[in-house]
Amino acid sequence: MSSEFRGNSPKGGFRDTIGMRVVELDDGLAVMELTIGPETLNSHGSLHGGAIAAIIDNTGGLAGCYCHETRQIRKAVTLSLTTSFIGPALSGTIRAIGRKRSRTRRIFVSTVEVTDKNGNLIAVGEATYRYVGEERHQHGTP
Where are the domains of the chain? Predict the structure, then answer.
C-alpha cells in the first residue's frame, strides 16, 4: 500500500465536492470511501445511483493509473462504464474496491465492488479506460 495517499486523495474537483477519498492505492488496486450525506441522497432517502457510479468510475480508474514504482498517477479517460445496482445504502460510509484486470499499451479494464457500512454488496461495476497523452507509458510521466 502506498502510505502517501492513505486518507489523502489525489486532487479531483468532483471527487472532492461529494467527499470521495482514497483509502488505499497500489499497483492494480484502489480503495475509496464515501460518507453518505444529504448531498448524496436521492429523493427516496438512499444513496443516489450517480454517486455510486461516480465512485465506481473513480476507483476503477485509479486502480489502473497508479504506478507503485514511480508513485506517479497517469491520466486516463473512461470509454465505457457498466454498473449493476444490487441494494440500497441509507447511511454511513460506503467502500469501493477496484482492481485492474487487464491492460494493453493504451487501454485497461477494471472491476469494482461497492459495499455498505456492514459489508453488504450494494453495487458492482466494470469500466474500460484509455490512457491519454504520454501517460500511455506504464510508469506515467515523471
Answer: 3-136
Dihedral sign (CA 13, 67, 82, 78): positive
**Model confidence, pTM:** 0.86
Fold for 3-136, please state it: Thiol Ester Dehydrase; Chain A (3.10.129)
Question: At residue 24, does pLDDT exceed 70?
Answer: yes
CB 110 within 8 A of CB 101: yes
As a whole number, the mean pLDDT across the chain is 87
In this predicted structure, the answer to whether residue 108 has a pLDDT above a threshold of 70 is: yes
> What cell numbers appear for 98 in the block?
477496484
Sign of CA dihedral 56, 83, 41, 115: negative
**Coil, helix or strand at residue 28:** coil
CB atoms near residue 121 (< 10 Å): 12
Residue whose C-alpha cell is 465506481: 56
Backbone angles phi, psi at 13, to 5 degrees: -50, -60
